[in-house]
Amino acid sequence: MTIEIKNKIVGFEVVNNDAEAAEVENTAPEKAKDEKRAEIIQMHEKLERPDMLLGSTYKIKTPQSEHALYITINDVLLNQGTEHELRRPYEIFINSKNMDHFQWIVALTRIISAVFRKGGDATFLVDELRSVFDPRGGYFKKGGKYKPSLVCEIGDAIECHMKMIGMIKDNGMDDYQKEMLEAKRREYEAIHCNEGASTSTEKTTANETSDFPPNSQLCSKCNTKAVISMDGCMTCLSCGDSKCG
Q1: Which residues does 127 contact at the CB level (< 8 Å), separation at least 6?
Q2: Which of 216, 201, 242, 203 is nearest to 145 (CA)?
Q3: Which of the given ranges, 106-110, 146-150, 196-200, has the highest pLDDT on average?
Q4: In the prediction, which pLDDT does 74 show?
Q5: How far, in Å, CA of 192 to CA of 80, rounded?
Q6: For the chain, which terminus, N or C, has the lower number of CB atoms within 10 Å?
Q7: What integer pLDDT is reported at residue 197 of this predicted model?
Q8: Nearest-5° angle of CA 84, CA 89, CA 92?
Q9: What is the pTM of this model?
Q10: Can you tell me the distance from the alpha carbon of 235 to that of 245, in angstroms, rounded to the nearest whole number?
């Protein structure tokens, strides 16, 4: 097609096709990054359940029942294979031969599963479940750990699972603190080892349910019977809580 130029030519410019192609190539990675950012999947209630989920099962055995509870938590993998890959709880099931608690356990699992699927920070469930107390009284687990209710133990299982998948950071004691508490424990046992034969029988019985000295008191922080008095200072051998700072 021929174009007639009627006006006077005052300037000209050579079009460089290579420069245009380079500019397109430079903007392509930025567009790709924006597309990847847009494809990041967050946990929400409209997320479809995959055909396969990763699951972990936790066993709870209480002295109040001869049958154990088995808690299964299934996780969904978000953004699998990318740098934004996350493992988040999707649903929870509780099974037991004991049918006494069947009704409220089914209701509890459905509510917890709904909270998981809603997305966001679901770690508050641990504190809510742990704050439930049985009006008939709690019980001591092996190791001297006091549990105020069965619901509290379900909260412990959820916390253990959330720590495993990285939702809750485990801020446990370092090796120095553990070594110091173990030294205090050995010193305490050495002082109280010569109390007589009658007391030694009581110690043996107490040690069957507790990993700490039989004269230990209950810790208000970790609910473990592990508080001893050393040099006029009350110290918990389980969590390290001390009245002396």
Answers
A1: 155
A2: 216
A3: 106-110
A4: 97
A5: 56
A6: N
A7: 42
A8: 165
A9: 0.67
A10: 9
